[in-house]
Design brief:
There is one protein chain. The protein contains 9 helices and 4 strands. The strands form 2 sheets. It has a two-stranded antiparallel ribbon with strand order 1-2. A two-stranded antiparallel ribbon has the order 3-4. A hairpin with a 7-residue loop joins β3 and β4.
Length: 189
């Protein structure tokens, strides 16, 4: 759910990428191009798909969407530590699912936006653990203050202002003035 939140809420992902720039873990110019593609420009119609907050953060029952993938033999779910109070489900992409994902990327151009979002998530060090991601997501006051059962609020305007400040500190323009296709998500990584 934590990675899904950043994928579905590009404004929060852009906020985290700006933190990476400020803490000198990512280069400003290329990262600002990614941020511009997330909070401005043309994105697929479902580029933002809000999630509700529930107890420990963003949550949505994944069962229906994952059941469709499992029924088509695209993924396999295995329960780990089933007898434990800490039981979890691990999901594995099967060869048929990999082939479908590859075909989508090649045949449906808007899918590239989602590929870039997933790659951008990989730039955040905490993206390796749900607990670390949750802690980082809760550092944002809007996320923390979201009411249980209600949608986590959009922060696009805040991110644009922050990006302008960050760009200014590095002597860069905001939005970036580049020949790159910023409207479609910036440079491909």
């Amino acid at each position: 759910m934590k990675i899904d939140f950043w994928l579905r809420n590009p404004d929060y992902l852009a906020h985290e990428l700006l933190t990476e720039v400020e803490e000198s873990r990512q280069p400003p110019q290329g990262t600002l191009l990614l941020v511009a593609g997330m909070v401005g420009g043309t994105a697929p119609s479902l580029h933002r798909y809000p999630m509700a907050k529930y107890l420990y953060g963003a949550y949505e029952r994944p069962d229906n969407a994952l059941a469709l993938l499992a029924s088509r033999k695209h993924i396999k779910m295995l329960r780990v530590n089933e007898s434990s109070a800490n039981a979890r489900k691990d999901y594995y992409l099967l060869p048929k699912g990999q082939a479908a994902a590859t075909a989508l990327r090649e045949q449906v151009p808007p899918m590239q936006w989602y590929v870039r979002q997933a790659e951008a998530i990989g730039l955040i060090p905490e993206a390796v653990s749900g607990g670390l991601m949750r802690r980082r997501q809760y550092e944002h006051p809007g996320y923390e203050a979201a009411v249980n059962g209600r949608l986590i609020p959009e922060i696009t305007e805040e991110v644009n202002k922050r990006a302008e400040n960050v760009a200014g500190r590095f002597g860069l323009a905001w939005p970036p003035d580049s020949s790159q296709d910023v409207a479609d998500g910036g440079p491909q990584t």
